[in-house]
Design brief:
The chain is of the alpha+beta class. It has eight helices and 16 strands. The strands form three sheets. It has a seven-stranded mixed beta sheet. The structure holds zinc ion. InterPro entries: MBL_superfamily_lactonases, Metallo-B-lactamas, RibonucZ/Hydroxyglut_hydro.
């Protein structure tokens, strides 16, 4: 498990809370339209941290970001969660990981969390919203406000979303989102995004999911971007048009990815990804129309 000492943006600290490390997917499976040449051209710097030399599989991570400001304790996205029934998505079926113990090791008990911010409501971003107690799904963070894009709620609460692309997310709204709404702990971000608390900004980046938003953070002139699922692996920095098989609105996903890569370079932002391996954090730079990535 990767250990990082944490990051600082102005007077705010950011710590990664690991859930799973993944190494089971061939690039051509995650990216159906992948040109194999792209992997060839980048294998020298992708191996061994991002691409397994033995199997050729992508190496990825699932984790949350713990953000501590002077006033608040905040989690950004909540992984896949324990005990969830995901028979159609075996990777996340009935997990039993020590994610809560890792949160405790970072110094945080569930009742200390003030806000849970979500980029979107997919299976690997909503799981620890709730935990199973006496056979019921209850909010894991009893005092927290859970904040997510309203459009995501409308879509995943509706039978319209129960299509083939969303098979991996089957059951997620019911066991991981509906209980926090029922508990009166949900707060919605409207379709235009906007500022939140003193330091955050929700930026609409639709495409991977219908109401997906990235979350910017600024403090004392320094800037971070929690990119959510606009990217799943550094290959997409080199090829921003590359969508995963999970990107539900492909053209919007391409536009959002291009736009936010540009945004990250213009704001000199430290980018905190949802699924990159190694530290999962880095800087995007740009030469002409070509982006590149340096881990931080
Ligand atoms: Zn994801």
């Amino acid at each position: 498990m990767h250990l990082n000492p944490g990051y600082r943006i102005g007077d705010i600290t950011i710590t990664r809370i690991d859930e799973l490390s993944l190494n089971g997917t061939l690039p051509s499976r995650l990216y159906p339209k992948l040109d194999p040449q792209l992997v060839e051209e980048n294998r020298d710097w992708l191996m061994p941290g991002d691409l397994d030399p033995a199997s050729g599989h992508l190496i990825q991570s699932i984790h949350s970001w713990l953000v501590r400001t002077r006033h608040h304790t905040i989690l950004i996205d909540t992984g896949a969660g324990n005990d969830k029934l995901r028979p159609l998505n075996p990777l996340f079926h009935q997990l039993n990981t020590p994610w809560l113990q890792r949160l405790a090791a970072a110094g945080i008990q569930p009742e200390q969390v003030d806000y849970v911010l979500q980029t979107h409501l997919h299976v690997d971003h909503s799981g620890w919203n709730t935990c199973l107690i006496d056979g019921r799904w209850v909010p894991t963070f009893p005092r927290a406000r859970y904040v997510f894009p309203q459009r995501e709620e409308e879509w995943y609460a509706s039978p319209d979303s129960h299509n083939e692309v969303n098979i991996p997310n089957r059951g997620v709204f019911e066991d991981s989102v509906a209980p926090v709404i029922a508990a009166g702990q949900a707060e919605r971000i409207g379709p235009d995004g906007g500022d939140f608390l003193d330091n955050f900004q929700f930026i609409p980046t639709p495409g991977h999911s219908i109401g997906h938003m990235s979350i910017a953070l600024q403090s004392q002139g320094e800037q971070a971007l929690f990119s959510g699922d606009i990217m799943h692996h550094p290959l997409q920095i080199m090829a921003p048009d590359l969508n995963t098989l999970y990107c539900e609105w492909p053209e919007q996903a391409q536009r959002s990815r291009q736009r936010m890569l540009t945004w990250a370079t213009e704001h000199d932002a430290l980018v905190f990804t949802s699924h990159f391996a190694r530290s999962s954090v880095g800087h995007v730079s740009r030469q002409g129309n070509v982006f590149s990535w340096q881990y931080a």
